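FORM 7B: Structural annotation worksheet

SECTION A. Query
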Amino acid sequence: MELLNALVEKGLRRELPTREEALAVLATSDDELLDVVAAAGKVRRAWFGRRVKLNYLVNLKSGLCPEDCSYCSQRLGSEAGILKYTWLKPDEAAAAAAAGVAGGAKRVCLVASGRGPTDRDVDRVSRTIEAIKERNEDVEVCACLGLLSDGQAERLRGAGADAYNHNLNTSEATYGDITTTHTYADRVETVQQAQAAGLSACSGLIAGMGESDEDLVDVVFSLRELDPDSVPVNFLIPFEGTPLAKEWNLTPQQCLRILAMVRFVCPDVEVRIAGGREVHLRTMQPLALHLANSIFLGDYLTSEGQAGRADLDMIADAGFEVEGAGEVTLPVHRVDAAAAAGGCGAQGSAGCASHGEGGGCGPCGDHAQGTGHGTGQGTGHGDTAQPAAAGAARTDLVAVRRRGTGTDLPPNA
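SECTION B. Predicted structure
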């Protein structure tokens, strides 16, 4: 296709596609899907080879968030039966992080529910970062604590944080439809504060909240302008007890098209397949590795993910390799730019997961996988998948996390 050839050339030059080209990727047919994946895969391999970065989530404080994000299982008024607990102690968080590092994770993402941290919270997280780095000197640490106040990003960096995650989630035009307790501008400001403090910025989106293709393109173009080092792409999973519990519309094919569009618009940044990959991509997850160069290992914040061993087997079977601790994630031009600005990007950046199920954090602490907007009905895992009945919740596809952090059971790492 002429469109795909043009997008590959632009991606190799780091040239921004037109909005019409980005929309055209989302509008391609299923018959053209492998061509789309192959084209975006050329761009991915040009900048990141066949490496896959592993990230591991540690949920420092779960539930009881005062924000009203419709997609979130930890939101104000949520009836989702998730784990709820207050702040982990630094040694508890360090032990949880060590399990992920032992499983191959290069970056640990520290997430806490809430609108944003108090200065006391920043002190607490700073001690946690120090405890983690005492055990694993080379591990990267990304904090995801919600909206930041003046000076907090600098304090986190001083404590050893490498990155800060805060997602835009959706387009500015539709943001008020999903959250009323803070604004799109608040989110942009927090990402900019992290960048100004020299932290590697991570900011992404959530696909599947009723947005149009135009909205998806809008938010990805906004991310390109904001220029984070990593962009997590979440596919929402509807939790029972949240406003979006009955929306099941994403298909594996549409998820792949969204990932391809993100790769074409943001060719040289770390694109992470975040929350919802197991539920919405299902058996097509290996194809997504041709588009994204980063995933989360094991479970997410409030829901269970694919077994860590299965993640590693999938990467190997698909012909990819786990990125080592000594390898730099980002292309050299981004590393050099970060070093010149005095930032942490030279380590290789990754962004933490969502306040929900893995992929970009938000102030409310969980992207309660609200899901799918796209074409078609969400279906179940594997051969037992059944189409979702109109307006029905799919509790068979969403397993609430009952192991790992905040429990007495070993983690899935």
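SECTION C. Observations
Residues 345-390 have pLDDT under 50 and may be disordered. The beta strands are 51-61, 107-112, 140-144, 163-165, 200-202, 205-207, 230-235, 270-273, 294-296, 321-322.

SECTION D. Sign-off
Analyst initials: ____
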